[in-house]
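step=encode ok
step=design start
structure_in=
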């Protein structure tokens, strides 16, 4: 049985209009009239197929579910970040930048059609269990995830505080997937943590870019500056999956006094935006080390790319995730939303980091403290040599004035990337304090 598009429109949800505009904008090279004719022709085909299925399919089909499935299929065929947000998913999406939720603490996306971890959120059940960026989620509570959207998975992963969920993870190099049983907990979306590594050297971690990130960053920085004469800073962006573009820009602006921070390019001129740094409010130019890894994505890559291109700091760690696109969220009827990719972003030097990511200035791969590298295990020092000379000094050895606390020493011992960043920062501070001149060692003739 055939039905006309006009008859179908009268009983389809408002969201079908979204298909019309999306499909219309995807037909290139035709005149406006030709585009409209093609759009109506394919919409009529869609209406006929849906009507035939409703009348003849072996089981009853709900029009709402069928249309939502068609919309999701359309968006998934475009890119892994464009998605239709049902009302409950749209509410969850808004909560991710506003408050807290109960779950296991991971950010996920679709990569090659497979649910893939962007990064675990720091100090959450997923992070403590050892879930890593690029892990593939193949099952949730025994149910295969094939065909599910990230928001379908989020609905399954979240639940009451204290309840359990089992996820099956496949990681490159593993022969078989492994099961992780995690206990859900409240995940407060605190975006900033800070501490003093030693007098003069501070540490700030940004877990994600939310509505108040820049405000929180300034509060934490002011706290460090009250505790010490801040001479250098480690900015930790590891496992930061991104967030709000404007917050990444405003944090970048704190470190830069002029020039580009990031620019975007889309199909429409209105999507071509340029963000520049301003002299007002720029922090003192103390030495800066930025830590990144494969879980650093999107907004955190914007910040790292701006710092790197302006040579404002040293990027340390491993190559970042490589998400160089911008998504816009459009509210729809009935509380739903449409999240779609509207532009690509570029670092100040014109680099697109889509897929390629940010390559650190100093590459330091993460090591487990229980499994040091073979090089580390086999390294020989003077003290290991037979009949070595005892150490001698012409002056009494003075006790270190600025010893690290036991807590910081343990933190550095457990985190080789942080240790590397700390060593580099100390060198930068020493170099800066000497006026840019290399300190002399011994006597020269």
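sequence_out=
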């Amino acid at each position: 049985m055939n039905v006309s598009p006009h008859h179908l429109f009268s009983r389809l949800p408002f969201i079908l209009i979204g298909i019309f505009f999306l499909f219309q904008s995807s037909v290139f090279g035709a005149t406006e009239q030709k585009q409209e004719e093609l759009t109506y022709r394919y919409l009529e085909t869609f209406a006929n197929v849906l009507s035939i299925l409703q009348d003849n399919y072996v089981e009853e089909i709900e029009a709402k579910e069928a249309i939502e499935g068609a919309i999701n299929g359309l968006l998934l065929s475009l890119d892994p970040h464009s998605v239709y947000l049902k009302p409950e998913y749209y509410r969850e999406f808004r909560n991710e930048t506003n408050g807290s939720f109960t779950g296991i603490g991971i950010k996920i996306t679709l990569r090659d059609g497979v649910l893939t971890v962007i990064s675990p959120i720091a100090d959450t059940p997923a992070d403590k269990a050892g879930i890593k960026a690029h892990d593939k989620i193949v099952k949730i509570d025994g149910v295969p995830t094939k065909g599910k959207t990230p928001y379908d998975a989020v609905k399954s992963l979240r639940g009451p505080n204290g309840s359990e969920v089992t996820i099956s993870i496949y990681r490159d190099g593993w022969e078989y997937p492994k099961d992780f049983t995690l206990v859900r907990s409240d995940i407060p979306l605190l975006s900033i943590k800070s501490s003093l590594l030693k007098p003069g050297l501070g540490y700030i971690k940004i877990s994600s870019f939310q509505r108040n990130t820049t405000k929180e960053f300034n509060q934490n920085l002011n706290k460090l500056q009250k505790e010490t004469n801040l001479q250098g800073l480690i900015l930790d962006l590891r496992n930061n999956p991104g967030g709000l573009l404007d917050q990444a820009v405003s944090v970048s602006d704190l470190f830069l006094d002029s020039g580009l921070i990031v620019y975007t390019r889309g199909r429409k001129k209105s999507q071509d935006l340029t963000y520049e740094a301003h002299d007002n409010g720029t922090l003192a130019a103390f030495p800066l080390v930025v830590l990144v890894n494969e879980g650093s994505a999107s907004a955190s890559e914007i910040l790292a790319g701006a710092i790197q291109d302006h040579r404002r700091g040293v990027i340390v760690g491993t190559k970042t995730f490589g998400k160089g696109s911008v998504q816009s969220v459009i509210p729809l009827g009935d509380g739903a939303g449409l999240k779609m990719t509207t532009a690509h972003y570029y670092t100040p030097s014109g680099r697109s980091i889509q897929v390629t990511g940010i390559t650190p200035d100093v590459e330091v791969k993460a090591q487990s403290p229980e499994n040091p590298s073979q090089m580390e295990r086999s390294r020989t020092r003077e003290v290991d040599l037979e009949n070595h000379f005892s150490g001698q000094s012409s002056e009494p050895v003075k006790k270190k004035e600025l010893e690290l606390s036991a807590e910081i020493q343990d933190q550095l011992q457990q985190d080789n990337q942080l240790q590397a960043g700390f060593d580099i920062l100390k060198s930068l501070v020493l170099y800066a304090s000497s006026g840019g001149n290399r300190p002399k060692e011994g006597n020269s003739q």
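step=design ok
step=annotate ok -> The chain has three domains: 5-77, 100-188, 192-339+351-363.
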